[in-house]
Design a protein that fits this description.
The structure holds 2 protein chains of 2 kinds.
Chain A: H1 2-17, H2 19-25, H3 37-47, E1 57-62, E2 68-74, E3 79-84, H4 98-104, E4 116-120, E5 123-133, E6 138-143, E7 148-153, E8 160-162, E9 174-181, E10 183-184, H5 196-199, E11 200-209, E12 216-224, E13 229-234, E14 242-247, H6 257-260, E15 266-273, H7 274-282, E16 287-289, E17 292-295, E18 304-310, E19 313-318, E20 324-329, E21 335-339, H8 340-348, E22 352-356, E23 359-362, H9 364-367, E24 368-372, E25 378-383, E26 388-393, E27 398-403, H10 409-413, E28 419-424, E29 429-434, E30 446-451, E31 467-473, E32 480-487, E33 494-498, E34 526-530, E35 533-541, E36 544-546, E37 549-553, E38 557-564, E39 573-577, E40 582-586, E41 591-597, E42 602-607, E43 620-626
Parallel strand pairs in A: 12-17, 35-38, 37-43
Antiparallel strand pairs in A: 1-2, 1-33, 2-3, 4-5, 5-6, 6-7, 8-9, 9-11, 10-11, 11-12, 13-14, 14-15, 15-18, 16-17, 19-20, 20-21, 21-24, 22-23, 25-26, 26-27, 27-28, 29-30, 30-31, 31-32, 34-35, 35-36, 38-41, 39-40, 39-42, 42-43
Chain B: H1 2-5, H2 19-24, H3 30-48, E1 52-58, E2 61-69, E3 74-76, H4 82-91, H5 106-127, H6 130-160, E4 179-183, E5 186-192, H7 194-220
Antiparallel strand pairs in B: 1-2, 1-5, 2-3, 4-5
Helix pairs in contact in B: 3-5, 3-7, 5-6, 6-7
The chains are: A mainly beta, B alpha+beta.
Chain lengths: 637, 221
Amino acid sequence: MNKTKRFTLLTLAVLSAGSAFFAGCSDSGSSGASSSANDKGSAAERTYVAPGELDNYYLFYSGGHSGQVFVAGMPSMRHLITIPVFAPSPGVGYGFDDESREMLGEYTWGDVHHPGLSKTDGLYDGRWLFVNDNANNRVARIDLRDFKTKQILGPIPNSSGNHGSSFVTENTEYLLVGTRFSVPLPMGRFAPVEDYADEFNGMVSGIKVDSESGELSVGWQIITPPFNWDLGSTGKGPSSGWAFWTSYNTEMAHTKLEANASQLDRDYAAFVNWRAAAKAVADGKADMLDGVPVIDPAKVPGVLYYVPVGKSPHGIDVDPSGRWIAASGKLQPTTTVFDFEKVQKAIANKDFQDEFRGVPVLNYDAIVEGEVPVGLGPLHTQYDGKGNGYTSLYIESAVAKWKLPPWTDEEKANPESLVLDKIGTHFNIGHLVIGGSDTRKPYGDWLVAMNKLSKGRHLSTGPSQPESSQLIDITGKKMEMVYESFTDPEPHFAQILKADQIQPIEVYPKAESKNPNAIWSLAESTVTYEPGKVTAKIAAVRSQFGPDKISVQEGDTVVLHITNIEQTTDIIHGFAISGHNLNVIIDPGETKSVTFKADKAGVFPFYCTNFCSALHQEMQGYLEVKPAGTAETVSID
Amino acid sequence: MDQLSHSDTPSTSIPWWRREARFLDRPLTPVSRFLLLLVAAIFVAVAFLPLWRITLIAPQYQEGLRVNIYSYKLEGGGLAGQDLFEINNLNHYIGMRPLIQSDFVEMKWMPFALGLFAMIALRAAVHGRMNQVVDLFALFTYFGLFSVGLFYYRLYTYGHDLDPTAPITMEPFTPMLVGKNQIANFTQYSFPLIGGVLMVTIPLIIFGAFWFSRAKYVAQE
């Protein structure tokens, strides 16, 4: 205990001295920091994907406050495409057509932190990728059939700051949502910040996923004290049916959190029996708040338990067996490993050390398996499926590889021996990811370290710096750094999926089109006039629009339904109207609609923005906007 | 078969110029009749099987664009016959008329003709006369040559009847009937498929039907 205290003090000293300084020094002594020419050759061979060849894995990065998801190939680490989710993206026309504009709602950005792949039977099934928006309390579903955002749910009621998301349960029954920020509920109610502990509340929620359509809806919410719910994960095996979140403000501080939320040696994690929560809602034990069912855990025993975790914990990660749960306190140099079998025993025996607002606090000593001295600033743990955990060390700028339980008495007596290897990262690693770490069968070959600082590791780009991702080979006894790549700001977490697990479509099959406004030949194109409204059905095909002249009256509402009638991979057409802040991109076989008011008289060129063919430049037309009151009567076609 | 044999009694008094008439009256051996049944079956099969394939390959179409030609339809390769749409879309740049099934009148009568040939072959097999084998051979040869000629004429017309106002001006050309050819950035391959191969075997089998009944005549001489 004394030793832990000293470490904590040291950590705090380091924090106040500036972590970047420490990061610069922590390099030496870590394996893989220096590499000979031979190592470089071998590393290049392992990551080289020759022109025309394909990667083995998809790497789906969260795009952080860019509001997007970045897709890369692994092991080459080449960026393949960016999937816009919460932010408009003119490159793919997202946020310009009626449908995506409606989906984005009033927001033009989001803060994507933790992508989660859908699962069946505890394994990735390649159907969907879910992401969260920490800023505006939303979650979204990307369909991996076409790599497009299909739904944005939210703002989710009673939730503020959805950080602990989007972790997916074993059979994609739910994805987790946790409130990083607490506010007076229902939202919109005023209470002074000084009354934080009494008037503010947090919430942990399960977002229900329709097993057929993937449609998201709020399943259950559990109201909590205003702890700041941080990260989460879901159970499997013995912990099947459970969800876990850490929190970092059991102190319930409302100001100067940096210090005031770091006072207690342990903060509470939430262990939620989500099957019991779903049942409580079905049994009518929840109250409706802002239109969604909210469970008061004091009134519904068995739904929520608190577990003390030291200190100011961040990541909480369930191992592939579902028995071991590693939670790391940012401010103590250890990762705490809980045994879920002991958790179940403690619950059965009511082995509680305390109670907080009617919710039992499990006896720490009864459920902890041990504390592994991984190093400074431990954040997140991933698993290789071969009995090892890999914990990112933010302050130390390193990854520690350590042995999962069961441990021998000798190992327990000498926990330092559990740390098997350490490798430096550059710099200040946040999340790390091993493919399938949150499933029953991790891939166990590559680890990607996502670092917060990249300074000095790339050609200078001025004050705005890219983010660094480092590829580490974990197949050997020693971890080996083999590649480094850079992305736009700012990946937090990522998911890795085997490439052969999905077969995305590359055109929207004409036979599947249900859009009533779709047309499939130039001959079918129409312009219809109603008072104050002009509707055009436009066909886009190499290398023309039909029609290529649209006449309207100033003040008319113009509705354009544009179909890319092609069925050929990569023949994508754009439709932009000069001076109208409008750029719709239509994939082969897709129909997109755009509605705008023709409020400026004049003649405006429209053209294809996505290079399509040898005569792409010629793919253009005109929008005639006749001045109001001066034009002759428009003939009805 | 036996009831026919009395009329087939060889006569040494027949003059040589009458011998072909005698030959045409000859009954067929069981092997020949079986071969004619086979020919009838092949005619039926050919009406359903793909006859020919044209493949176009270019740098950006390494997977190739395909058109399969049946007796009764044109079928594009790719997803939902997309290749035909794609070929027509590309051809509009050089002003070639789109390949539209309804323009090919032969696709209306060809299955009927194949059925007719199946009937003739069946008739020959049942009646078992050499003259019917000769009829079938002659008619099929005519039909085969006509079809190949028509196919060539189609290829010639599509490659020569180009819209002069098309974006790209191209020297008129004739796509290859059988083999490999370069047309602008595309390499064109044209080869028979199973139906086409079977069509070629038909005259051989008919000849076989003739051959296996010829010996009897020779022996009786």
